[in-house]
């Protein structure tokens, strides 16, 4: 998120919209978003920048009290931004009221850095060097009282702190709610990048040949090797399923209400983590699947890896986000148990019914059954949530605080977060499949859904660790994935073509890579 539009729109009120929005949209003002610090990233509540209020002049005074408090990774700050939204602790009459956001000018119209402000570049990065990430220090920088973005709280002329939300934790949660939009856009864009990598790698694998199976026979297409199918087609199925989940997330964000804020936060956190991790894994596999050609910058995959690696840690570190998901599920669990009421919310309603039972022997038709797949995913989430709650309770019984108990139970927390996300994704592709009438498209969606579900079961050790699958059933899952690869192989080109990516988004090896490497092309370059 940056200064343009969205931050002013969501954090501010009418006085800010009237004064700032038009100039931000026309680039009369070029802004940046100063939240992260050298010493604090994911822990926004702990940032060190301090803002006080001077009632004599009706101004706020912003200070960087230490080197670790310098604003860091601020996109646009190093060279271009004229204004910034500063996130800072607000100290009123000696009382810290928590993190708030302020509009501050950092350069004049001629691009000169304003007095009492220092700015430096963050330096060369492994990717995304088109963004001038910068560092900012504030030394008694004064701004008008009206520059406090006051959608959640305000300060009167005489220095009284005003907010309709009295509880500091609830106020902090309401204050950060607009950041959800960043996680939504990152999750969705991660799927797009995975689609680009797969489109390039699969199109190359449908034209590149290597080795003959029998003497004097033609060389075999890469994608006709079962091992190559195993590398790319499960990732293709997961990407398609995640694409449906990303679309559902966008709709959830568009239709958001105050009542859905919590669910949106949890789902966006889970999908942001899972989808960006998946993107990086997919791009690496695609790079390797293209051999030496995958190393060339013109073939895009390596470039995509370096440009989008940052998604795993910005707008919330993925591991931290997954722990937030588990904490939210834990909260729902404790609330339902204390009140002896059914589960309602965060998709946990399935825990109100009987515990699913997985058959001791799974046939191919059972493995491809959507009912079995839902049962297996719901069983995993239910059991992991029970185990997580039990482990947290055990640590608390030994005298540990709830927060420290969460830290000690981090492994189950991460397993639970993944189970929650996987179930959300499975439900999304099931919904897409059910919306299509019988025919070839529905059949292909069924193959993708089964591949998604079964590859998740194969890759997550929790299914074996906690006995959801016997070793025999785990072997059956692995065998079925291989069979699904062969059945998806004829549809590979149609599936990547269905992404609708313009040719210009792909690379030479996605087309006629011999012509693009011919001698005439060398003379033309």
List the helices and strands and how they pair.
Layout: H1 3-11, H2 14-26, E1 31-34, E2 50-54, E3 59-63, E4 71-74, E5 83-92, E6 95-105, E7 117-121, E8 134-138, E9 141-144, E10 154-155, E11 161-162, H3 168-176, H4 180-205, E12 209-210, E13 220-221, H5 226-254, H6 261-289, H7 301-308, H8 318-339, H9 364-367, H10 370-397, H11 402-408, H12 410-434, H13 440-459, H14 462-465, H15 471-488, H16 492-497, H17 513-516, H18 519-524
Parallel strand pairs: 1-5, 2-5
Antiparallel strand pairs: 2-3, 3-9, 4-8, 5-6, 7-8, 10-11, 12-13
Helix pairs in contact: 1-2, 4-5, 4-6, 5-6, 5-12, 5-13, 5-15, 6-7, 6-8, 6-12, 8-10, 8-12, 10-11, 10-12, 12-13, 13-15
Spell out the key features of this protein.
525 residues; alpha+beta; six-stranded mixed sheet; three-stranded antiparallel sheet; 18 helices; 12% strand; globular
What does this structure look like?
By secondary structure, the chain is α+β, with helices and mostly antiparallel strands. Helices cover 51% and strands 12% of the residues. It has helices at residues 3-11, 14-26, 168-176, 180-205, 226-254, 261-289, 301-308, 318-339, 364-367, 370-397, 402-408, 410-434, 440-459, 462-465, 471-488, 492-497, 513-516, 519-524, and strands at residues 31-34, 50-54, 59-63, 71-74, 83-92, 95-105, 117-121, 134-138, 141-144, 154-155, 161-162, 209-210, 220-221. Strands 1, 2, 3, 5, 6 and 9 form a 6-stranded mixed β-sheet that branches. It has a 3-stranded antiparallel β-sheet with strand order 4-8-7, with no helix packed on it. A two-stranded antiparallel ribbon has the order 10-11. Strand 2 (50-54) and strand 3 form a beta hairpin. Helix 8 (318-339) crosses helix 12 (410-434) and helix 12 (410-434) runs antiparallel to helix 13 (440-459). The radius of gyration is 26 Å and the shape is globular.
């Amino acid at each position: 998120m940056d200064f343009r539009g969205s931050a002013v729109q969501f954090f501010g009120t009418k006085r800010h919209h009237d004064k700032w929005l038009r100039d931000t949209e026309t680039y009369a003002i070029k802004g940046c978003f100063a939240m992260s610090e050298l010493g604090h990233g994911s822990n926004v509540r702990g940032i060190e920048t301090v803002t006080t209020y001077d009632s004599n002049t009706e101004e706020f005074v912003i200070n960087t009290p230490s080197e670790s408090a310098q604003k860091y990774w601020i996109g646009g700050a190093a060279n271009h931004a004229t204004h910034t939204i500063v996130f800072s602790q607000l100290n009123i009459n000696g009382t810290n009221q928590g993190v708030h956001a302020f509009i501050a000018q950092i350069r004049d119209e001629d691009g000169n850095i304003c007095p009492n402000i220092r700015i430096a570049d963050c330096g060369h990065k492994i990717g995304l060097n088109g963004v001038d990430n910068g560092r900012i220090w504030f030394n008694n920088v004064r701004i008008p009282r009206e520059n406090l973005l006051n959608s959640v709280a305000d300060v009167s002329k005489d220095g009284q702190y005003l907010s309709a939300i009295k509880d500091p934790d609830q106020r902090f949660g309401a204050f950060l709610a607009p950041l959800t939009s960043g996680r939504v856009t990152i999750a969705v864009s991660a799927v797009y990048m995975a689609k680009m990598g797969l489109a390039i790698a699969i199109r190359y694998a449908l034209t590149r040949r290597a080795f003959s199976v029998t003497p004097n026979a033609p060389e075999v297409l890469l994608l006709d090797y079962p091992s190559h199918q195993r590398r790319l087609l499960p990732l293709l199925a997961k990407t398609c399923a995640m694409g449906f989940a990303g679309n559902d997330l966008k709709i959830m964000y568009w239709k958001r209400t105050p009542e859905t804020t919590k669910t949106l936060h949890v789902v966006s956190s889970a999908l942001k983590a899972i989808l960006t991790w998946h993107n990086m894994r997919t791009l690496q596999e695609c790079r390797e699947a293209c051999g030496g050609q995958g190393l060339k910058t013109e073939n895009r995959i390596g470039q995509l890896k370096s440009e989008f690696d940052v998604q795993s840690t910005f707008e919330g570190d993925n591991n931290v986000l997954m722990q937030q998901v588990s904490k939210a599920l834990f909260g729902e669990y404790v609330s339902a148990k204390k009140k002896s009421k059914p589960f309602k919310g965060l998709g946990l309603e399935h825990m109100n019914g009987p515990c699913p039972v997985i058959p001791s022997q799974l046939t191919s038709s059972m493995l491809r059954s959507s009912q079995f797949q839902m049962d297996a995913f719901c069983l995993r989430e239910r059991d992991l949530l029970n185990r997580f709650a039990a482990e947290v309770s055990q640590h608390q019984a030994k005298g540990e605080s709830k927060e420290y108990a969460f830290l000690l139970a981090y492994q189950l927390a991460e397993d639970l977060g993944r189970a929650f996300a996987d179930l959300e994704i499975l439900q999304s592709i099931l919904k897409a499949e059910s919306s299509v009438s019988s025919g070839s498209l529905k059949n292909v969606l069924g193959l993708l859904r089964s591949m998604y579900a079964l590859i998740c079961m194969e890759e997550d050790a929790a299914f074996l660790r906690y006995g959801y699958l016997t070793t025999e059933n785990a072997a059956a899952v692995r065998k079925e994935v291989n069979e699904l690869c062969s059945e998806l192989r004829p549809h590979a080109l149609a599936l990547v073509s269905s992404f609708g990516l313009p040719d210009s988004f792909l690379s030479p090896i996605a087309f006629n890579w011999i012509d693009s490497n011919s001698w005439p092309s060398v003379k033309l370059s």
